[in-house]
């Protein structure tokens, strides 16, 4: 069955409050910390204020693309449980985990089997392996069948243009599901009604 949900790209306190106080909150909420190309990016001071709240049972995830030491030092004391790292090699990943004593989600962008196989390089240093599309801030898909050879014991998360209506079809998959674009309105803002529908649907699976 689906292990749990991650809602990514939260950028305003009203939406965050709704999610945290929902009867069926997700296990993870992601915040775009340094990728300015994303419409979901949150500037440091706003981010600091945004996540300075009680998380209850939810984990806060800092989504980072090739983060610098300067940035990591700046956010190390913020209210994060995980760093989600894109474009960070295994050696650097190990250094970050050890120095900042934080859980790591290693994000791999996928278009073929060779991309998937890179997970083996991160197994010993990552708490979760995220398999995502090549789209980064754009909600693009990839063929989830490429993950069929990844062992069940790997703690894995999948993203890449997953829709709310996909949830029932994924209920037999041993994944954490990561959604962002599919719970936004036409203006690219998170939609409370869509989030509510997602969380209620997941609770029934």
What does this structure look like?
With 205 residues, this protein is of the alpha/beta class. It has one domain (4-204): Aldolase class I (TIM Barrel), CATH 3.20.20. The protein is built from 6 helices and 8 strands. It has helices at 13-20, 44-50, 69-75, 90-100, 113-117, 192-204, and strands spanning 4-8, 28-32, 59-65, 82-86, 103-109, 128-132, 156-158, 176-179. It has an 8-stranded parallel beta barrel with strand order 1-2-3-4-5-6-7-8. Strand 3 (59-65), helix 3 (69-75) and strand 4 (82-86) form a beta-alpha-beta unit. The model has no long low-confidence stretch (mean pLDDT 92).
- The helical percent reads 10-25%
Low-pLDDT runs of 5+ residues are none
Number of domains: 1
Q: How many whole angstroms does the radius of gyration measure? A: 16 Å
State the secondary-structure class: alpha/beta
The fold-level CATH name is TIM Barrel
Spatial sequence of strands, sheet with the most strands: 1-2-3-4-5-6-7-8
Oligomerization category of the chains in this entry: single chain
The CATH class is Alpha Beta
Number of strands: 8
Q: Distance N terminus to C terminus?
A: 8 Å
Quick one: biggest sheet?
A: 8 strands, parallel, barrel
Overall pLDDT confidence: 92
SSE topology string: EHEHEHEHEHEEEH
Helices, by number, come to 6
For CATH, the homologous superfamily is named as Aldolase class I
Shape: globular
The fraction of residues assigned to DSSP E strands is 15-25%
Please describe the topology of this protein.
Elements: E1 4-8, H1 13-20, E2 28-32, H2 44-50, E3 59-65, H3 69-75, E4 82-86, H4 90-100, E5 103-109, H5 113-117, E6 128-132, E7 156-158, E8 176-179, H6 192-204
Parallel strand pairs: 1-2, 1-8, 2-3, 3-4, 4-5, 5-6, 6-7, 7-8
């Amino acid at each position: 069955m689906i292990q749990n949900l991650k809602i990514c790209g939260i950028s305003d306190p009203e939406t965050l409050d709704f999610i945290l106080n929902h009867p069926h909150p997700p296990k993870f909420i992601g915040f775009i910390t340094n990728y300015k190309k994303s419409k979901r990016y949150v500037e440091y001071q706003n981010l600091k204020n945004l996540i300075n709240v009680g998380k209850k049972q939810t984990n806060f995830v800092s989504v980072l693309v090739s983060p610098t030491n300067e940035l990591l030092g700046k956010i190390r004391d913020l209210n994060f449980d995980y760093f989600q790292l894109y474009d960070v090699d295994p050696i650097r990943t190990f250094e970050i985990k050890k120095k900042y004593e934080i859980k790591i989600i290693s994000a791999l962008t996928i278009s073929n089997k060779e991309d998937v196989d890179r997970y083996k390089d991160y197994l010993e240093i990552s708490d979760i392996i995220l398999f995502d599309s090549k789209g980064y801030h754009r909600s693009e898909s990839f063929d989830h069948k490429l993950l069929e050879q990844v062992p069940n014991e790997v703690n894995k998360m999948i993203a890449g243009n997953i829709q709310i209506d996909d949830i029932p079809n994924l209920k037999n998959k041993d994944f954490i599901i990561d959604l962002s674009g599919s719970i936004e309105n036409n203006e690219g803002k998170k939609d409370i009604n869509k989030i509510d529908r997602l969380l209620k649907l997941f609770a029934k699976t």
